[in-house]
Write a structure and sequence with these properties.
About 50% of the residues lie in helices and about 15% in strands. Strands 1, 2, 3, 4, 5, 6, 7, 8, 9, 10, 11 and 12 form a twelve-stranded mixed beta sheet that branches. Helix 5 packs across helix 7, helix 13 packs antiparallel against helix 14 and helix 14 packs antiparallel against helix 15. The two termini are about 45 Å apart.
Length: about 475
Amino acid sequence: MLPSSRDDARALALIARYGRTATAFQALGRGLSHWFPPRADLQRDDTGLVAFAMVPGGVVAVGEPTAAPDEAMAVAEAFVASARAAKRRVSFFATEGNLAASPHFGRLLLGEQPVWNPQHWRAQLQGHRSLREQVRRARAKGVRVVPLADATHHVQGAVDALLHRWVATRSMAAMQFVVDVDPLGHASTRRLFAAMQGTRMVALLSMAPVPARNGWLFEHLLRDPEAPNGTAELLVDAGMQALAADEVTWATLGLAPLKGPIRGWLRVVRALSRPLFNFAGLAAFKRKLGPERWEPIYLVYPQAQGSVWSVIDVLRAFAGGSLLLFGWRTVRRGSPAVLRALEWLLIPWTIALALAPAAVPWFPHTGVHTAWVLFDVGLVIALRALRQTPATAPRAPRLATGLAVAVTVDAVCTAAQAVLWTVPHLPANRGTAGLVVVLVACAGPLLAARVLWGLQRRLRSLRSAPAR
C-alpha cells in the first residue's frame, strides 16, 4: 500500500514555502491524498509534498512535487519508488518545471498556460480595444465587482446558487481531480471577487496563491448563463488590478488543454470532443486577454511506463473512476451533441419503419403501423426544436418535459406491443433476427427517455435556482 495521509496544515506550510507552480495550491483539493517523503530521502531537514489521486493500478500526482527546487527531483523519484513498491503506475499531471525536462521521465505536451505580469496589465488593457469594450459593456449593464473578505453564510448561499446554475449549463458530467470546482475551499487563503448586478451574484472569481513565484492562479471563473457580456473580462480586470496594487508580478489563468504543438492524435481528440468541451474556445478566451507569454504544460511519467497507461490513468482521475460510467453520466445530461445523435439515429429508423410490412407479425393493424411512423416523424422534428432552443429559454424545460413524457409512453407502448403481439407471432424461421429487431425497438425509447429526463432536470434547475 502506498503510504499516504491527508494533512492540510502541513501541506499549506509547504505550499507557502515552496509553491511555485499553478497546481501547488490544488494539492488541497477534495478527494486527494498527501504523500510526504521520509526525511532520509532528502539532503536537508525540510520535506516535500506530492498530492495524488488513486486510480485502478496507478496513482496520478497533481503537478510536480512541492519541495525546494533542488530537491523536487529526489522527491519525485522517491514517490515513484514508493508507488512501484505498491505495484502501481505513476503519472505527474500538469508539470511545468525541472521534472518535465528530466531524462528519467518521458513527457507528453498537454497544452499551454498563459502568463501575465499584473504590473503591466493597465497599459495592456489601454492598448486592447476589444477587451476594453467588453469591460465597458458589463459596466453599462450595471455589473460591479466586489471583493469578498470571507465566506459568510450569505456568500456561501449565493455561491452555491451560482454554481448550481453554472453546472447546469455544462454538457459533460462533473469531473474530479484538479478540475473539481470548490471555489470557497480554504477561502481564508484565497482572493475572492464577486460580480454583482443589483443584489444578484452573476459571476465569481476565486484565486489561489502561488507563493514562491509571487503569483496567483485565477483558478475558478464561474459565470451565470444569463450574466451580461463582458462579465468574465470585468472580473479578470478587477483581479489583475488588485494584484498589481499588491505588487504581484506573476499570474495565470491555468492550463489551456490541447493548445500548442500537441501530438497528432491529441489534435484529433480536440476536434472530436468539441460538442462536449470546446478546448479551442477556452484557449481563445485566454488568448483574448493578451497574455505576455505561454508556458508549456506536460504529463510526465517514468520512461519505462510509456504514455498510453499514463493517459488512461489521468482520464480515470478526472472521471472519478470508471470511464464508462462517466460517459453514461455525460450522455444522460442530454447535451446538444447527444440530442443530435438521437435525432440522426431516429431518421434511418423511421425510414426503415415506414418501409416495414404493415402486417403480422410486426403490427396488429395497418393503422398502428401508420401511427408509429407519424409519431417518429414528429419526434424527429421535436428533438431538433429542443436542440436548437437555448438552455435558458423559458420554454426549454417545458419542451423537454413534453418530449420526455412522450418518449416514456413510447417505450411503454413499444414494450407492450412486443410482449403481447410481436414476439408471440414471430415465425420460427425469423426467431433470432426478429428478437434482435424487437430488442432494438424496445431499447431505443428507453435510452432516449433516460436522456430526456436527465436533460429535463438539468433545464429545470436553471429556472428553479436563480443566482441571488
